TrEMBL record:
Mg(2+) binds at T22. It comes from Aquitalea magnusonii. Keywords: Amino-acid biosynthesis, Aromatic amino acid biosynthesis, ATP-binding, Cytoplasm, Kinase, Magnesium, Metal-binding, Nucleotide-binding, Transferase. Its EC number is 2.7.1.71. Monomer. Belongs to the shikimate kinase family. One of its GO terms (molecular function) is ATP binding. This is Shikimate kinase. The gene is aroK. InterPro entries: P-loop_NTPase, Shikimate/glucono_kinase, Shikimate_kinase/TSH1, Shikimate_kinase_CS. Its cofactor is Mg(2+). It is found in: Cytoplasm. NCBIfam families: PRK05057.1. GO terms for cellular component: cytosol.
Length: 180
């Protein structure tokens, strides 16, 4: 078992679909002994249906309401790692909750990598389009300023395996004051 890092506070991951928030978040939680949450999984647990089904039946706006409610609840917890959904930064109240209650990590990747990492997953309704590359590009243009606004750390994930990423991330996190 690798050495456990003992660090205070919450860590919140933001970034586009396929950046690795869920995957890196889970590994970071394991390494730090924090409890892992994923806002999409929490929404699915509360509703009993997949994200894609919520988009289909209720539409994106209602999904965003559910997402805000989950983020507000989870951000108030202690000693957690939370992987948010890629659109969580769209609402100012979500950005406020995240930056107030934890260290926010923006995971970046090239459009090529984002595309490769998401192309086989049907549970990302925004990418079920004729041109997912153009969609990712436009989401990046819209959201990159919001991710940067909320982030305490920006990490490039392209060509980095998850374990290496987590150990580099921990080096950076040691230099940032905890937010609890
Ligand atoms: N650094 C990485 N290198 C290679 N593949 C990755 C990396 N991070 C995540 N992945 C893979 O990309 C896919 C999407 O990752 P995921 O964690 O679901 O992203 P997000 O939650 O940001 O949408 C998964 O199949 C995951 O295994
Ligand atoms: O970028 C977005 O708006 C979304 C990202 C997804 O999460 P991941 O970023 O974990 O794929 C999920 O919340 C939903 O499909 C909407
Ligand atoms: Mg995810």
């Amino acid at each position: 078992m690798p050495a456990m890092e003992n660090m205070a506070g919450n860590f919140f991951l933001v970034g586009l679909m396929g950046a690795g928030k869920t995957t890196v978040g889970r590994a970071l939680a394991r390494k730090t002994g924090k409890t892992f949450y994923d806002s999409d999984h929490e929404i699915e647990a509360r509703t009993g249906v997949r994200v894609a089904t919520i988009f289909e039946i209720e539409g994106e706006l209602r999904f965003r309401d559910r997402e805000s409610s989950v983020i507000a609840d989870l951000a108030k917890m202690n000693n957690i790692v939370l992987a948010t959904g890629g659109g969580a930064v769209l609402r100012p109240e979500n950005r406020a909750e995240l930056s107030r209650h934890g260290v926010v990590i923006y995971l970046r990747a090239s459009i090529d990598d984002l595309l490769a990492r998401t192309m086989h997953d049907k549970n990302r309704p925004l990418l079920q389009t004729a041109d997912p590359r153009a969609k990712l590009q436009s989401l990046l243009e819209q959201r990159d300023p919001l991710y940067r606004e909320v982030a305490d750390i920006v990490v490039d994930t392209s060509q980095q395996n998850v374990n290496l990423l987590v150990s580099r991330l921990l080096d950076q996190l040691h230099n940032i004051p905890a937010k609890t």
